[in-house]
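Batch job 17 of 40 flagged for manual review because the log was empty.
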Amino acid sequence: MFPVLSLDLYVDVVKKLVDSLKPERLILGGHSMGGGVIQEYYFKYPNDVSALILCATGGRLRVNQIIFNSIKPNYQEYLNYLRVGIFYWKTSKDIIDNVILEVSQIDPEVTYNDFKICDAFNALNKTESIDVPCLIICGKSDELTPVKYSQYFKDKIKNSVLCIIKNAGHMVMLEKPFEVNKAINNFIKIYF
């Protein structure tokens, strides 16, 4: 029997990996729900973390009811929504098709549970306590985690850098990989 999916489970998996690797310096990066996971990891184990990379995420991750209404009864409807809901309108068809193919392999129940975890996530009251350097990355056209989510991080986290990438949506790291990698490299050079 598989364990029940939860934010704590995801944090525990990351902790086991970190403990097995024993890194000298730990920079955690997370996209969307992964950003929630690394925030929660930081709140539980702040002494482990040297820096955070918060990509297309937020301190709260509310989910539109349209997503919940489509996943279980009609997974294809949800996949069709992704085509227009998570990408910048000029993103190449190849990138979109590859993402949709990958997402289509995920069990709808897992997807639904992950969105439930996102919808319940709310760390807004703890954001100001983040006391490590943070790189905040978002696509300017992200509709799932809009720029205002990233601006909130920038306003609340003292030691942070905000990088808003033009012509990108929620899948900014796939839509604009060069720009995302450049932002990460620059951040690491400055802080480490």
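Reviewer: the log was empty due to a logging misconfiguration, but the result itself is present. The chain has a mean pLDDT of 96. Unflagging and moving on to job 18.
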